[in-house]
Amino acid sequence: MQSLALLGCTPPYYNLTHHRTKPPSPVVRFRLPPPVSAMATPALRPQVTHSMPPEKLEVFKSLENWATDCVLPLLKPVESCWQPQDFLPIPSLPSDDFTDQVRALRDRTAELPDDYFVVLVGDMITEDALPTYQTMINTLDGVRDETGASPNPWAMWTRAWTAEENRHGDLLRTYLYLSGRVDMLTIERTVQYLIGAGMDPGTENNPYLGFVYTSFQERATFVSHGNTARLAKEGGDPVLARICGSIASDEKRHENAYARIVEKLLEVDPTGAMVAISDMMRKKITMPAHLMYDGQDPRLFDHFSAVAQRLGVYTANDYADILEFLIGRWRLEKLEGLTGEGGRAQDFVCGLPPRIRKLQERADEQARKMEPHGVRFSWIFNKEVSL
Ligand SMILES: [Fe+2]
Ligand SMILES: [Fe+2]
């Protein structure tokens, strides 16, 4: 989709040039192309690693007690968390009762349109690539889980966050499976391709960049699951609406945790944090599933994004709204004590939302002049959906 492409929602290998200010001597490598069978398109963006100066590791060490007191409480105790089974037919019931529950589920989903399923499947696949996201967070210097069971609060957060997130894909996958509306085999293949391909958010092992990325991304998923909840309700499935709504409320809590970390970084290192926010926004926030592929459509992610945009589930305007929200939440316009570089980063970020909206208006204008066309999605048995 053209408009989302302008906002960085296309795979990063289209963005061969971007400008950034780098701390001294980060290690720059080019990623070796993965085996052809496991990828949608070759990734060519330079791979920058370890861009945080080593002395800044101390910042994260010094914030460990703060993280214990102010971040870990945003996790929910397991016993008070919902589980997928709370929303699904109960398999231990007598067979007739179980099949009645499955039939009711299929009746509820029968009237939902195909394009809704394209978006819900894309969201589910994004959630199902969770191993990639835990890996990505564990690439971040100073906050990674060094042992796999580290008692460090940053590591405890990441493991428990992953455990909470793990319910999202499980629930959506089982619900979609029982609905009978989607081709599970092609969906499962897409998940396998996607986890094999990974992701490239451009966070450079740098927790400043990493936490800006996750703040943005958790809010993006909060917005999109909230919208799939609304559409499920309008389409006649109140249970699916509650499912998407419950996932959205987890995302909101997670967004709050990551945004709180960036807020703290802005307090202890205003220029460092401000420059990191600007760096991520210059690179544009890449969606986590940007390398998705089903073995058939090399532009699957663009096509999925275009349908999400058309249904209003996640749009270019949402991207600008999220940025505007974070600018307000972090009070970036009023931030003081910045160096010259920090001030320039502040001006860039605070001036960005209206520029994004203007670009979007222009892209919408162009899109209106184009012939409407459809694309077939393997996930819904190669039925055509208009973009
Ligand atoms: Fe999630
Ligand atoms: Fe999330």
Automatic annotation (TrEMBL):
Q: Name one GO biological process term.
A: fatty acid biosynthetic process
Q: Does the keyword Membrane apply?
A: no
Q: What is its main location?
A: plastid
GO terms under cellular component:
chloroplast stroma
UniProt keyword terms in alphabetical order: Chloroplast, Fatty acid biosynthesis, Fatty acid metabolism, Iron, Lipid biosynthesis, Lipid metabolism, Metal-binding, Oxidoreductase, Plastid, Transit peptide
Name the coenzymes or cofactors required. Fe(2+); Fe cation
Q: Which InterPro entries match?
A: FADS-2_CS, Fatty_acid_desaturase-2, Ferritin-like_SF, RNR-like
Say which domain of life the source belongs to.
Eukaryota
| Family the UniProt entry places it in | Belongs to the fatty acid desaturase type 2 family.
Name of the protein described by the UniProt record: Acyl-[acyl-carrier-protein] desaturase
Q: Look up and give the organism this protein is from.
A: Nyssa sinensis
